[in-house]
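REQUEST ID: PR-0412
SUBMITTED BY: lab tech R.K.
PRIORITY: routine
TASK: structure prediction, single protein chain
INPUT:
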Amino acid sequence: IAPPSEFEKIKALVERLDQPIDIEQLAPRVFPIKYSDAEELTEVLNRVFGVEDTDRVGGYYDYLRMMYGGRTEVGRLYGKVRFDPLPSINAIIVTTNNKENFPLIEKFIDELDRTAPEAANLLVVTLKNARAEDVAEQLNLLFSREGVRAPEKKEEETAVSWYHWLYGAPKKEEERPISNLIGQVRVVEDKRTNSLLITTAVQNHEAIKALIERLDTAEPKVCVAVRLIEVIRSKSKRMGIRFSSEPTVFETDDFDNGLRSTFGFSWEEVHGNGIVGAELDISALVQFIARHFNTRILSDTTLTVDNNKPAELFVGAEIPFIEKSQITPEGTRADSFTYKPAGTTLKITPNINQEGKVVMSIFLEASQRRVGEVILGGEVLDTRRFNTMLAVEDGQTIVMGGIMREEEVEGIRGVPILKDIPFLRLVFSKKDTRHETTELVAFITPTVLRTRAQDEATTRKFTERLGEQHDWQPPPEHPEEEGLEERE
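STATUS: complete
OUTPUT:
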């Protein structure tokens, strides 16, 4: 409806608008991507040109900004271009309302689709002190998505959180990782060169290298001197008559004065557990006990171990035990065996704390086979163990005892032939019943080695000590019977 005078103008305007569609004007174009990933690049382009806005989810204020020119980030192309990925050929489909926009879009895509430097995201770090597999395990655990989450904080209530539909803000924000590196770092160790192969973005390289440098520090070593001895104390009950040319018999109490004058204490005072000062010569104490007591030295070993690494010492034998037994179709029995240690086991893990003390985690176990006892066709082990942890100064000695074993041994000695005659046996023979108590005593001395000079000094010290130990021989098993001869 219009005045007749306007009909000609309206007709001319309709003819101008009623034109055939220009396919080239509206047809989308396909841009092949050479170096980048088409899907990742599409996501970036859509955010830049306003097709997908991840910051807001709509709202009244957002609508006003769009209507009144609030969006001017990329000029006249904002909201007029759409990008869709085509992963099968690694390309991007671009659609716009004016073909004059394609040259600008193509130039922008070319600037983004550049070849990255070869191995730009790969970082190789060679370790000097730490083990590559240990550091790689720690880093992968630290940067994995399944790591420990940060403590949740209560968000402050604002107008945006209450009226998210009005301000266009998300109702609930996604949980952010505690670090930007979570899920962005992958580490693989190279055992041959003790190196770390790291894949991450270039901007993360400096932070990763700084962290590895702190982990790859030289740790001090701990030289642990371990002396395991068995002290045997026996009480004998003798019945009968014994003829001997040597009436003197050593008793344990005779040597209390010798210990007190030499080392300042008696054997009964060191019986059990305790800590001895660094000024005491443990080698001299062990040799003194070995000379004058019925003592057996199980081990005199020096172990050098890295800080916070375990060391183990075992003295004994592996005893086979029946693990599984079955009857074959032929009627024979087939047994499978497993071996268990029987003897003395000592496990030590030293840890140097910030004060310079050595925190020792000590596990001591003594086991032996019960002679003559069989249960379900298998041997029986008599085991005693204890586990403890204590802190000592550098060079102090830990004395651990209290693991005891009691045995009763009977024997008949006498004049040959005459001791076998029934009526003369009481005169020419004697019956000995000996109760033996064997105590396991461990002397453990940790020495911290921080420099090479300390390593060499400790090596010389123990080399000299080994030379001194060749000058003495351990006493016989039962010194009280040494020198006794039977006479008619």
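NOTES: The chain has a mean pLDDT of 72.
REVIEWED BY: pending
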